[in-house]
Design brief:
- The protein is α/β, with parallel strands linked by helices.
- The protein has 19 helices and 15 strands.
- The strands form 3 sheets. Strands 6, 7, 8, 9, 10, 11, 12 and 13 form an 8-stranded mixed β-sheet that branches. A 5-stranded mixed β-sheet has the order 2-3-4-1-5. Strands 14-15 form a two-stranded antiparallel sheet.
- Helix 14 (285-294) links the parallel strand 6 and strand 7.
């Protein structure tokens, strides 16, 4: 679409979601490296296809975000169909007939997935693309075997009575893919640079129509979110065009997953003037910028923990400069390594916890891993539609450790806890454990659960009023997420007390 120019964009011909990408050689090579690190390793007595060394090769710098996304998408697709692709290689005779080293198997797998996805048609190759000999060699071998490979795939589909290979996947994974294809895009309005009125007028000039509900989104329409007053929702097929619009280029509108928009809105009601915020975990820069914009009138600082690499620091600094965010401070230390008496953080009154989680409530696991700095090992579990008990246990231990550390900050009055998980082990169970009374002799002002104050949310939407959690289940219009707000009272010597604000200050347009 970018080659059509801005004049053509106003004609509004939505791009086809199912159009196949002709990947350059470098994408196959990097996807193979990713797959090598995340493929499911089987017991020795069941191994039929060998992948060579278990040592993971370091990934090179990706050319751009699009190439990175292609590489991870391709690797994850091959992972989901690992058993099927291995079977096709064996039934067709390809695996045992080719003189390829074991460490080339991952390249064969990602290229075979792409080959069958193109209905075994040849790839269009641009003269501008870099030629990688290993990629061209595997491609030539696969193409020479295409008839036998296609026949083997048909046999597998007949065995599973599957009209397409998608039906071989577990039902939960199929539903996840269906949701991912319909999930709209959310964009928050940067009121430091514009207003809702200006945004509405500009969208109207660009040919957009405002509708009442996400279910009405098609063509060039948008609607307002039913929870956050500064959040707009757009149809899924418009992402590239949105990125090319002036409002997005100028950071007046910013694409952001909804749960992080909700998280920052939950923090604001807990703040007073001059109260600082600690963001305990590395998170997307847009989330921090949104927090900065929402709290711009409160004269507060936002401290983000765990910004270790200089490249990440420079990347965030450039973003915050473009967004005119001046109150964000970056700390190299991990949150749990910071002393609660650290003099830099004595004005902090709220801690936002966005801990590493399974991402099981998200329809697009790859997006989660790339944007939320998630663990690529989770792709192995999510490719099968569930997360192992051992991995959930490890995640829950870390999540509880972070909450318990947050409780040690004596001047903090509120903790906002947010995950993108559907598992109680990472949600309710963690919060319930964190609120358990401690041993006698331990002095600690007790925390309690408070109802989340969400601007446009009715009380009926707080799913468990007795426990005061807020949850959204995965759907065709929204990812799944979980929120809990913990608050406490601090009593002073003369009997007065300080509590977090309990009313939401109205959003000013």
């Amino acid at each position: 679409m970018s080659e059509l120019g801005t004049t053509e964009l106003i004609v509004r011909t939505p791009s086809c979601l199912n159009e196949k990408v002709n990947y350059p050689d470098s994408v196959f090579l990097n996807a193979a490296k990713i797959f090598q690190g995340i493929h499911r390793k089987k017991p020795p007595d069941t191994i039929l296809v060998n992948y060579g060394s278990d040592l993971e090769e370091p990934l090179p710098d990706f050319k751009d975000e699009r190439s990175q996304r292609w590489c991870y998408d391709l690797a994850f697709s091959a992972l989901k169909y690992q058993d099927l692709l291995e079977t096709v290689l064996l039934i067709s005779g390809f695996y045992h007939s080719q003189d390829l080293a074991d460490d080339m198997t991952s390249l064969v797998m990602v290229m075979l997935y792409d080959f069958q996805d193109r209905k075994f048609q040849p790839r269009y190759i641009s003269n501008k693309d870099e030629v990688i000999e290993d990629v061209r060699k595997v491609e030539k071998l696969l193409y020479g075997y295409k008839t036998k490979l296609a026949a083997a795939l048909v046999k597998c589909r007949i065995k599973y009575a599957a009209p397409t290979i998608e039906y071989i996947l577990p039902e939960v994974v199929r539903k996840q893919e269906q949701r991912a294809s319909t999930l709209p895009f959310y964009a928050w309005v940067n009121t430091a640079k514009t207003s809702l009125t200006e945004v509405f007028n500009t969208l109207n000039k660009e040919g957009f129509t405002k509708v009442d509900s996400p279910s009405d989104l098609d063509g060039y329409k948008y609607c307002m979110d039913n929870h956050c007053p500064d959040l707009l929702i757009f149809p899924p097929h418009l992402k590239e065009e949105l990125n090319n619009m002036e409002m997005f280029i100028d950071y007046k509108l910013l694409l952001q997953e909804k749960s992080h928009n909700l998280a920052v809105h939950l923090v604001k009601p807990l703040l007073s003037v001059n109260d600082d915020i600690i963001v305990a975990n590395p998170c997307p820069g847009f989330t921090l910028a949104h927090m900065s914009v929402l709290t711009s009138q409160l004269a507060c600082n936002i401290y983000i923990c765990g910004v270790k690499s200089e490249s990440r620091r420079e990347e965030l600094l450039e973003l915050f400069t473009n967004l005119e965010c001046q109150n964000i401070k970056m700390l190299k230390e991990n949150f749990t390594d910071i002393d609660p008496s650290d003099p830099r953080l004595q004005k902090a009154k709220v801690i936002l916890l966005l801990p590493q989680c399974s991402g099981s409530g998200l329809s697009d696991p790859v997006e989660f891993v790339l944007n939320e700095h998630g663990d690529t090992a989770l792709l192995q579990d999510l490719s099968q539609g569930s997360v192992s008990a051992d991995r959930l246990n490890d995640l829950a231990k870390q999540q509880l450790s972070e909450i318990n550390h947050a409780k040690k900050f004596g001047k903090v009055l509120g903790i906002v806890y947010c995950t993108c998980s559907i598992y109680p082990e990472e949600n309710e169970h963690v919060i319930e454990e964190a609120l358990q009374p401690k041993m006698e002799g331990v002095k600690e002002q007790p925390y309690r659960l408070s109802p989340p104050v969400i601007p446009l949310c009715s009380s009926a939407e707080v799913m468990s009023t007795s426990n005061k959690f807020f949850k959204m289940e995965p759907s065709e219009t929204c990812n799944g997420c979980f929120f809990a707000v913990l608050t406490r009272e601090i009593h002073h010597l003369f009997g007065s007390r300080i509590t977090p604000q309990t009313t939401y200050s109205s959003f000013a347009t």
